[in-house]
Amino acid sequence: MGRKGSRYSIEEKLGYIHLVEQGLTAFQIERQYGVKCEQVKQWIERYQAEGTDGLKRRKLRQYSVEFKLKVVKLYLAGNTSYPQLAKQFNVPNVSVIYQWVNLYTSGKSLNTTRRDRNMKTGRKTTQKERIEIAQWVIANDLDYSGAMNQFQVSYGQVYAWVKKFKQGGPEALQDRRGKDKSDKPQLTETEKQELKVKALEARIAHLSKENKLLKKLKELERMDATQNKNIVPFKHSLKKH
């Protein structure tokens, strides 16, 4: 389980919806089956609104720069979240909005949001690398696309590693192909400490970026307020002859 939402069959989606109808919460389904609770909620909303048609795979939407900028500014203004914006503007993947915000706050163009086609196949990695990448994604609010560019791996690899790490911890990211289950190579204490430090550094960097973002937003608001204050209303009066 735990695949991307578009890769589930209609029958599978209906199955999870049925579990909710029987009393399970979306959060419990995520814990038991690895399906994101926001994904389950989205299926329920679509099913209630459109029936089974709402659960069919949808074509990939193209978003204009103006649309992306509008969503980004709403997020930066506060009082909302990525899931709320995804629901409001019918954006299927929450991480897409995170990517737009990340691009905007990094000073990059909102046109550059497509995944690198050359990274579909991924690359070979060590257990330590997989743990580091999984920790980085979690520290950065599940920025899978960001991890692709940061570590030069494929989206599928990142998604699978994060899922395994959440379910089984570092041990789940061992490469068990062709090895006996009793053979369990362990990370050294030095490697474990290095990974802890990198996870902490990733979280600090993310929070620092968020802080800079808030400062930038406040500065823009201050500039707008100053500009509006200096505008002198134009008064036109008709002269009597």
UniProtKB/TrEMBL annotation:
> What segments bear the compositional bias annotation Basic and acidic residues?
173-192
Residue ranges occupied by any Insertion element IS150 protein InsJ-like helix-turn-helix domain in the UniProt entry: 19-59, 67-105, 129-181
Name the Pfam families on file: HTH_28
Where in this protein does the record put region Disordered?
A: 171-192
Family named by the database record:
Belongs to the IS150/IS1296 orfA family.
Q: Which PANTHER family match?
A: INSERTION ELEMENT IS150 PROTEIN INSJ (PTHR33795)
Q: What is this protein called?
A: Transposase
Species this chain originates from: Lactiplantibacillus nangangensis
